[in-house]
From TrEMBL:
It comes from Phlebiopsis gigantea (strain 11061_1 CR5-6) (White-rot fungus). This is F-box domain-containing protein. InterPro entries: LRR_dom_sf.
């Protein structure tokens, strides 16, 4: 069957649907791309949706020199890219540069970046912002004016204001995820301790407001200083518009900055996610949650049993449900329609789960239409057994038909 006949025989919508079914299987997508011209565009949508550039201080990593050079010779490829990931490598010096073709990996990096100026989603991993020259910082900040979604992971800055200076580069930013970032209490202290060049510091532009359009904020595993500094930045926003907040504090932090976040966001907050570490004190958590304004129109609440290694030392269930009760007794519930508990099966063993079930049956939760239990480690359990455990732990919720069980 030739390609022309195939195009006539199979509707394009069906071809696209077939390709969509293997969107996460690169080998199959590459095979689809070779079927015919009709199969190529949709295959490229998935193959090139996300591109990762490995670099060190704005030089393409030698392991990627050939592939990035090829990418630059194929102008159509970058048109399909929606997400760009910039990931720093620390082993640059272990790779020998390509002397034969005399390729400048710094120039190659900036040429590649120019191809992706249109992306909406940008990820920055191990950015090591303090090690960049001021010129490179300014060039990076000018490269992605279209970004609306930003992830910053395991990156360091001289101080909080330099972190905010990065955010000013994204005036359209609506979603920000920050995980394991670091900065010092002051830039002067950082430069004195590190011996770095203070002339590389990028000051916060006086005419820019970082995060003015922000709607969704996720802060994970940043230490107490970072958590507080981010909250204080939100307080200074003239018209905060944040509707979704996800907080996962460092081990040992009882959400001390939570009232600051609530105060800054105000009544705009609609969706709240809190990751509960095993060391959190339920009473202090209750005091923190009490900072949520009574007229907040909270619509969904997600609580994560994020105990990790702590499960080896404490009975996680006895911590999780006490924290759940502390939160449920303090939040505004008039508009709350969904509560989601992400936990492990053994977390249902605590009798406090029954107490939480009774609380959810009260008239204050009358707007609640869905209680979701998400199990994250289910290898040793059948779905039928997990369903029985969920019904036993939350019997009144199950009887009302609002209990849903998901397995991850």
């Amino acid at each position: 069957m030739n390609a022309e006949h195939q195009r006539a025989a199979i509707p394009q919508e069906l071809i696209d649907k077939i390709i969509d079914e293997v969107h996460d299987h690169r080998k199959s997508l590459k095979a689809c791309a070779l079927v015919s011209w009709a199969w190529l565009p949709r295959s490229r949508v998935h193959l090139h949706r996300t591109i990762t550039l490995y670099h060190q201080n704005c030089r393409i990593h030698p392991s990627q020199t050939a592939s990035i050079s090829t990418l630059l010779s194929l102008s159509a490829i970058s048109e399909y890219t929606e997400e760009l990931l910039l990931e720093a490598k620390t082993d640059y010096g272990l790779h020998q540069p390509n002397r034969q073709n005399d390729i400048d990996n710094g120039e190659l990096f900036w040429r590649a970046l120019a191809r992706f100026a249109h992306v909406k989603t940008l990820g920055m991993t191990r950015l090591f912002w303090v090690s960049h020259s001021l010129e490179n910082k300014n060039r990076l900040c000018a490269a992605f004016s279209s970004v609306t979604n930003l992830d910053v992971y395991m990156s360091d800055f001289a101080d909080a204001r330099e972190f905010l200076s990065l955010l000013t580069a994204f005036p359209l930013l609506t979603r920000l995820r920050v995980e394991r970032v670091f900065w010092a209490k002051s830039a002067a202290a950082w430069y004195e301790a590190s011996g770095s060049d203070p002339s590389s510091y990028r000051a916060l532009p006086p005419d820019r407001v970082p995060g003015a359009a922000l709607r969704h904020l996720q802060v994970q595993h940043c230490d107490v200083l970072m958590m507080a500094d981010i909250a204080e930045w939100l307080v200074l926003l003239p018209n905060p518009r944040i509707e979704t907040l996800h907080l996962s504090p460092p081990d040992g932090d009882d959400f001390e900055a939570l009232p600051l976040y609530f105060s800054a966001i105000g009544t705009n907050l609609k969706h709240l996610t809190l990751a509960l570490e095993f060391s959190i004190n339920a009473n202090r958590l209750r005091q923190a949650v009490a900072g949520l304004e009574a007229n907040t129109r909270l619509q969904s609440l997600t609580l994560l049993a994020n105990y990790g290694f702590g499960r080896k030392f404490v009975k996680a269930a006895s911590v999780f449900w006490q924290c759940v009760l502390a939160i449920l007794t303090e939040i505004a519930t008039d508009h709350l329609h969904t509560i989601r508990f992400e936990c492990q099966p053994e977390d249902l063993e605590d009798p406090a789960a029954l107490e939480a079930d009774g609380l959810l049956a009260r008239s204050t939760f009358r707007s609640l239409s869905s209680v979701v239990l998400v199990f994250t480690s289910v290898e040793e359990y059948t779905h039928e057994r997990l369903g029985d455990m969920a019904n036993a732990a939350l019997p009144q919720t199950a009887a009302r038909g609002t209990l849903n069980v998901l397995y991850v």
